[in-house]
Specification:
Shape: globular
Largest sheet: 4 strands, antiparallel
Number of helices: 2
Protein name: Halobacterial output domain-containing protein
Helix content: 25-40%
Mean pLDDT: 84
Distance between the termini: 23 Å
Number of strands: 4
Organism: Halosimplex pelagicum
């Protein structure tokens, strides 16, 4: 069994808000750059997660009248990324 990724208790090293018309993956890349990750040196995002599914999740949340929130924590590029409907945070 693999350990699940959890939201760290420490403050993030980077945080970006997700614009109303922005895809989650675009915000994730902005957060990675703000965390000083060299995106030319890391493997492709599509090799690690289903980026289309991430974008659809955020799009579905924006269209729905659901009261619930979502939080997705994923380990990418030796960092933990936390995606919420309004922001992406990066943790070491």
């Amino acid at each position: 069994m693999t350990p699940s990724t959890r939201v760290p208790d420490e403050p993030p090293v980077a945080r970006v808000g997700i614009d109303a018309d922005e895809d989650a993956t675009d915000a994730l890349f902005r957060a990675a750059r703000r965390a000083h990750l060299d995106l030319d040196e890391v493997e492709q995002l599509h090799d690690r997660i289903d980026a289309d599914a991430l974008d659809r999740l955020l799009s579905h949340h924006r269209r729905s009248d659901a009261d619930g929130e979502f939080t997705l924590a994923v380990d990418l590029w030796d960092r933990t990324f936390v995606v919420r409907p309004d922001a992406v945070e990066v943790y070491t």
